[in-house]
Amino acid sequence: MTDCLFCKIAAGEIPAAKVYEDDEVLAFKDIAPKAPVHVLIIPKKHLASIAEAAPEDAALLGKMQLLARKLAEDLGIAAGGFRVVTNSGPNSGQEVAHLHYHLLGGEQLGDIV
Ligand code: AMP
Ligand code: ZN
User: Fold this and answer.
1) Residue 86 sits in which domain range?
2) pLDDT, tens digit, for every residue of 56-66?
3) Does residue 112 lie within any of the structural domains?
4) Which residues are catalytic?
């Protein structure tokens, strides 16, 4: 989508602190981290949120979750515990309308659920 911030990051048009990239997914550091480790995992394909995901996206979503697990290990937060969360729509406070999983860890996280 032309006017989407994360599509532009995925296309390399806007810089980001990348921690992983392949042909389908990208992970980069959140610009305003809410924890010592705060990484965003996005599909390169534009989906507005999890609410737009279809059965054909099952493998892509699974890949994103397994990447969260792998990055948690690589970034040293797996042993202490971490959180993977995605916002969808106005009531969640979603700010960027391109699907992203937040990977958070490195300290005791506040309860959200
Ligand atoms: P959400 O509220 O779930 O849509 O989260 C959007 C996240 O994107 C926030 O945590 C922002 O800090 C983050 N963010 C916004 N712009 C950028 C950017 N240019 N690079 C990295 N992270 C960003
Ligand atoms: Zn997009």
Assistant:
1) 5-105
2) 999 999 999 99
3) no
4) 100
